[in-house]
């Protein structure tokens, strides 16, 4: 039925020009990497779209690597194209993400909430333990804390945030920090 087709589209990320996303390198064709960005088709990323990249100085990118980048081209008639540099040629935090973190998926609604300026959830979590966090507009989150246990606690809290009120979240965090 047309209804099921519609619900399926909503679950799939649709690339938007300028969106910062986390992609997974699935292959390399010539000078172009192919990335799974969670959409209906793969995105392309030129090896020259990294800070300081030249024909001689190529970025070290392997199949399976996670890449944080942004869409340069995203429209329904063309294959999505990603870059790992801003308009002035700087990486600005984009590029290959460390291997030893944890990648998971959440709803696009939760991602928007987490990306909002002064997000309370992130502020509260950062008082728990130090951790690194990469948020992709495509619903992917990469997180890494000092230990695997701390990483998984942060993952669980972020996943649960979707269904918790601010009050429930504060209580859960208070229990974890031992207050």
Structure description:
This protein has helices at residues 2-11, 108-115, 120-126, 148-161, 166-177; strands at residues 20-29, 32-36, 43-50, 66-75, 78-84, 95-97, 102-105, 131-135, 140-145. With 179 residues, the protein is of the alpha+beta class. The protein has two domains: 19-96, OB fold (Dihydrolipoamide Acetyltransferase, E2P); 102-177, K Homology domain, type 1 (Ribosomal Protein S8, Chain: A, domain 1). The strands form two sheets. Strands 1-2-3-5-4 form a five-stranded mixed barrel. A three-stranded antiparallel beta sheet has the order 7-9-8. The chain is elongated. It starts with a helix and ends with a helix. It is found in: Cytoplasm; Nucleus, Nucleolus. This is Exosome complex component RRP40.
Concise structural overview:
By secondary structure, the chain is an alpha+beta fold.
Give keywords.
exosome; OB fold (Dihydrolipoamide Acetyltransferase, E2P); Exosome complex component RRP40; Ribosomal Protein S8, Chain: A, domain 1; NA-bd_OB-fold; nucleus; RNA-binding; alpha+beta; 179 residues
């Amino acid at each position: 039925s047309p209804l099921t087709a519609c619900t399926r589209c909503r679950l799939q990320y649709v690339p938007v020009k300028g969106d910062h996303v986390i992609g997974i390198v699935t292959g390399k064709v010539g000078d172009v990497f192919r990335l799974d960005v969670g959409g209906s088709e793969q995105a392309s990323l030129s090896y020259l779209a990294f800070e300081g990249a030249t024909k001689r100085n190529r970025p070290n990118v392997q199949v399976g690597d996670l890449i944080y980048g942004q869409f340069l081209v995203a429209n329904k008639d063309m294959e999505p194209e990603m870059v790992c540099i801003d308009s002035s040629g700087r990486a600005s935090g984009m590029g290959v993400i460390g291997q030893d973190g944890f990648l998971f998926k959440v709803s696009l609604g939760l991602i928007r909430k987490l990306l909002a300026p002064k997000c309370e959830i992130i502020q509260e979590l950062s008082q728990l333990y130090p951790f690194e966090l990469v948020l992709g507009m495509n619903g992917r989150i990469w997180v890494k804390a000092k230990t695997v246990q701390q990483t998984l606690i942060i993952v669980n809290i972020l996943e649960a945030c979707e269904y918790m009120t601010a009050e429930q979240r504060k209580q859960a965090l208070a229990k974890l920090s031992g207050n």
